[in-house]
Amino acid sequence: MAIKLTSYEKEMLEGKHGYPVQMGMQIQVQMGQIYYAEKMIPVSSVHMVNASAIMSGEAVIKLVEKMVKHGGKFKIPTTLNPAALDYECWQEMGFSQEIYAAQIRLTNAYKALGAIPSHSCTPYLFGFSPKFGEHVAWGESSAVNYVNSVIGARTNREGGPAALAAALTGLVPAYGYHLDQNRKGNYLVHVGIELKKVADYGALGYYVGQIVGGGIPVFTGIPRDVPAYKLKMLAGALASSGSVALFHVEGVTPEALTMDDVFNRQKPVQVIEYGQKEKEDAVRCLNKNQKEEIKVIVIGCPHTDIVEIKEVADRLQGKKIKDGIEFWVETSLPIKELARRCGFTDTIQAAGARVVVDTCPVHCFEQEFTKRKGFTALATNSAKLAHYVPGMWSVPTYFGNLEQCIHAAMTGNF
Ligand code: F3S
Fold it and tell me: Taking a C-beta distance cutoff of 8 angstroms, is the pair 135, 154 a contact?
């Protein structure tokens, strides 16, 4: 069945509203045909995943610049995912002039189209949060999973070209997680142990993501007062070992108020028991091939909120990081400013650590950079980061809780 377009949408497709809109519409119509969408629906915001010059490469930079040359303008608020460097102190941190030049081109081209250069994967923490039921077009797997699940907004995992097309047209094809019938749970996960630390939520997400792949897990046994930043970590991990874009937590997330409703009165395809053994399996899996000395510790994947930065500052108070080790606390620019006002950045810097903005290892590491910096091994409390960094950048990774990471910063050992 062909997708039905309004007369205005047909004009967009025919090029009557300019080349960038036409190109965007062509992408959306093709996507709609692949996924049997019946119509287009308006979206209220975009989060653009292709925002790092390293990850995007020259072809994407040229495409975005081409849209600018042809007079393209984003129709809806569009935030940007992490860049390839920290704009505030890229030279001090050892990023190359070449990467800076490429990143400036990409960010400037997006800005010319109307994007907000937020360069963070947690824009929902600082003013760009959709409402329950709102249709958006977001990329970045952890952000997609968070806004779908914790907020109850509606988005598919929009890759670079599809997100660009959504920003240029303000439309997406109506398929996938935009539709009620595709938002019900199909795996039941009984959490039988107490989850205390942020890293515990990462280990849980990592374990479950491996089993459910692209399914929709429904968790029971997670306390009703779980703070949002721990669900942020769960969202990131589920979307890294699996491709989970929506999960539910009984009595916590907005579409899981009753189990009958969340499963649409169907039986789950599998029931997963998560206890101490499963947690240990996940932690073991994330701590492979560790022979090298830890040279960099990274907290804040996904980017931290102010509560997490406070905890790091409290734990670093009066301590000193070992010479030769870097300690990054990753966040967004607005949250860093708040941390500065609270005095947390001073405490963190006094210990020899750094609050890093705009970027993260997945988006800024490259072989040349890690070699130059001498990053032989990385330690983190993020299951997502521990999953990606060894494969992408050949840097062995240690995964554990914040206390273990701080111990590593003091000693070089986990
Ligand atoms: Fe965010 Fe980078 Fe982690 S984009 S979720 S900090 S890998």
Answer: yes
